[in-house]
Amino acid sequence: MDQMKLLIDQREGDRIKEMASACGCETQVVQLPLGDFLIAKDDGAIVIERKSVSDFVSSVRSNRLWDQLLRVSKADSIEGYQIKRRLLLLHGSFNEYLLQENDRFWRSIAGAMLEVIFVYGIPIIQVEDDAALEAFLRILIQREELGQDDGIPKARWFRRPAPSELPIKDKKLYVLESIPLVGGHLARSLLDHFGAIAGVATAAPEELMEVLGIGKKRAEIIYEVFH
Length: 227
Hints:
By secondary structure, this protein is an alpha/beta fold. It has helices at residues 14-20, 53-62, 64-74, 103-119, 130-146, 155-158, 168-177, 184-194, 197-202, 205-208, 216-226; strands spanning 5-9, 26-30, 37-41, 44-52, 77-78, 81-91, 124-127. Strands 1, 2, 3, 4, 5, 6 and 7 form a 7-stranded mixed sheet that branches. Strand 3 and strand 4 (44-52) form a beta hairpin. The chain starts with a strand and ends with a helix.
């Protein structure tokens, strides 16, 4: 397993450097051309732009934020590591703005966050305080080290488990519906055509394409699932 490294920009304060250095992996203080933290291993890196909440508000008002994020989003590599993920980390609380700012302010902040997420494609995470920041970095490093952020959702997150009291035909349909690109209508058509899941499982792609609505792509996916 590749050794994780946490690179910390030298412009970060001593308190942040000390806290980040306690996150359980090798750390180095360097001059990063982009971002404030770089979590890296041989197969790629995460560049993290950390902003205090007050700095985030200020950078939205001055439009400085967009130039920074554009540079982050366009960069392919940093410090010799290929960038595979980008993250904007908001450090602190918006509580101080709750009473002193109006609806226009909150519309501006909400709009800016949506712009960051949907237009620039950069996720936003907010950590309320230093303890939350340290915990977040530690968990992120652990997940990256184990490759947990590179997987696909487990099947149980896609669909609810079938109730045990379902009739047997509905259970068969449930199984077929779980195949990618096969919904309820096609599952029923497959079951009607082949008579049983075993018939679907042993059918060649050409035989699967005999079912109305099953084209070449769907047929290949169904065949691959069972083989």
